[in-house]
Amino acid sequence: MKIDSAKRLFTVLLFLLPCLMWGYYGHTRQFTEQRLTESGFPERNFSDLFPRWLGARELLLYGRDPYSPEVTREIQQGYYGRPIDRRRATDPADEQRFAYPLFVVFLLAPTIGLSFTTVKWLFTVTLLASAAWTVLLWIQVLGVKAGRSEIFVCISVALATLPYAEGIQLQQLSVLVAFLLAAAIWALAREKFFIAGLFLAAATIKPQLCMPCVAFVLLWSVWKWNSRKRVTVSFLAFMMILLLASEALLPQWPAQFFAGISQYLRYTQATTGVHALLGRVGGTIILLLFAIVVMVKIWQAKSEAVDSEDFRLAISSMLAFTCVGIPSLAPHNQVLLAPAYLLLLKKRRSIWAQGRIPRSLLCAAWLTLGWPLVTGMLLAATMFFHNISSSLWSLPFATNPLVPITALIALIPLFVRPSAMAKGST
Fold first, then answer.
1. What is the mean pLDDT of residues 72-79?
2. Residue 31: count of CB within 10 angstroms of its CB
């Protein structure tokens, strides 16, 4: 009887984890909206999906160029409540342009006839399901031995992390891209190569998140061409369809997309975590060292089966490196870290047995991930009892640049000690 009560209590606590974290992030958004209101911005659609949705609607219904200055002003009108005025120092720096490849409109096409309020709720539910399936697919791909209760724990903890709390509440397509990549690798593991190529092509709606993974999979496919060629053929065929269909909708759109990248990097003040921490020279050196280490592992895994430990380590570290190398400190991009942390969980005993330094690296990875989760939940829980200084609400973001860096470094002992990969796993 006591055991059943303990299980029920544990289940309730696991359910509360994401609720508290979501409550924390929802409250931090109120501070941002309050600052915008004080700066003269009225009611708005505070969602990262809105610029993409409005651009898709204007193109598909009215034939307007979503990259144009006119549509950009309308996006700002809908997102902020009025267009940005560069003469006002208090106006936001983020111009909220339609900064995606044009073929993202095909994903959003079924929603353009709906109100954005309805679309926002539909995507929130979709991203919630995508997040849960992402964790489940990576558990299967990585060979983590987990029953239903363990899977429930992993999904609950994932939803309680800052990347997923932010990504889902902002309707960020990063969450969907993370699912598409997980689905592609899952399809590879089951030799469904045609489906894998389709998922990889769909994930290119956010090229900066998917291209390292796509490059690795294509190398893996080409290396054993006779048995794996359907992956490359499928990917290239679907990409050709997307590109030609996009060109038919808006001729010469790639020129506008690539021209907007430099503007996007400028107005978002883009930088990587290592550059933010170590400066231009130090950050570049560390980033190059990480790149070399990961590329060596990818090269070693190019001929291996998807269910091999080498491939699992290569794909996990490559996605972690993607988060390290992205010129953005936005937490929602870190949804790509799910396989890295699942692999660290699976191989924790192997890493722990290697000595003091690997143990320290493993602890650092979990501490940087756990810091925002614990502090965010505490802030969310205590706000019901008394007002909290607004300066404290930024505490959970303190380790944000460190999370992907520590996750990648914690995997390195598995690189330099290959024999550890063959030892016990959970």
1. 88
2. 12
